[in-house]
Write a structure and sequence with these properties.
This is Propanediol utilization protein. The chain is an alpha+beta fold. The protein has seven helices and eleven strands. Helix 1 runs antiparallel to helix 3. It starts with a strand and ends with a strand.
Length: 244
């Protein structure tokens, strides 16, 4: 499975560490990290100093926003030594069977093999965009053995051509539509919302509940957030991609 990462401005993980006995990690709002997962991660890195990491994350885990990887990176930040990005990626895979490329300086520039923790290709820069984002449906934590995803390899060449935002949005829409056609759920309202609100396109986490409508900078509709909430999306908010 390969993925392209969207990097929004603003959301971040805050981690604090306190020395102690054993190894533990606690999210302020979402509870403790699985001790077995944490132990696998530490073992893959050759050990971590004993103590407790406290995390503050912008989104709940299991929604397709990369919070599982981000939380593990928060723990690794207190390793007391420099850790190479690929070492961190492989440790995340060893811990939970998958990884997002958040340990790299420009994750949006990577075509990423999430189940293997490796770079498949370097990508052209992403254009800046404004998003109406939210979550639809239940949390769907990534399952390492789940490989039933739509083939979108034919879209990559057009993505690589440094295409304008409208073209990129259309490609993201096609990828998302193929995912819904293969995996469901058939009642997903995001494509209809994109059409009704005049978005350039829409996108989704192919293994999570995250959804977003794509607009040119400054073109967010006034009543867009209300429309998403009325359609059943939760956690609706505005985002801006970093652009490069």
């Amino acid at each position: 499975m390969a993925l392209i990462t969207l990097t929004p401005a603003g959301p971040r993980v805050i981690a604090r560490w306190r020395a102690g006995v054993g190894l533990a990690c606690q999210s302020v709002t979402h509870g403790p990290m699985d001790p077995a997962l944490l132990a696998r991660f530490a073992r893959a890195l050759g050990g971590l100093p004993p103590g407790r990491t406290l995390l503050r994350v912008p989104y709940p885990p299991g929604l397709g926003t990369g919070m599982s990887t981000a939380g593990l990176l928060g723990v690794a930040a207190f390793a007391g030594r420099a850790l190479a990005p690929l070492s961190l990626a492989r440790a995340c895979v060893a811990a939970e069977g998958a990884s997002d490329p958040l340990m790299f300086a420009q994750p949006s520039r990577l075509l990423w093999a999430s189940r293997q923790g490796r770079v498949l290709a370097r990508l052209s820069p992403q254009p800046r965009a404004h998003l109406l984002a939210g979550f639809w449906g239940p949390a769907r934590p990534t399952q390492a053995g789940d490989l039933a995803y739509a083939d979108v390899s034919d879209l990559l060449e057009r993505w690589q051509a440094e295409a304008p935002l409208a073209t990129r949005a259309a490609l993201a829409s096609e990828s998302a539509a193929r995912c819904v056609a293969l995996r469901g759920p058939s009642e997903d309202p995001t494509e209809r919302l994109a059409h009704d609100l005049g978005a350039l396109g829409w996108m989704m986490s192919h293994s999570g509940a995250a959804r977003a409508l794509i607009f040119a900078p400054g073109a967010l509709p006034r009543h867009g957030m209300a429309a998403l909430r009325e359609a059943g999306l939760r956690g609706v908010h505005h985002l801006a991609t970093l652009g490069e």
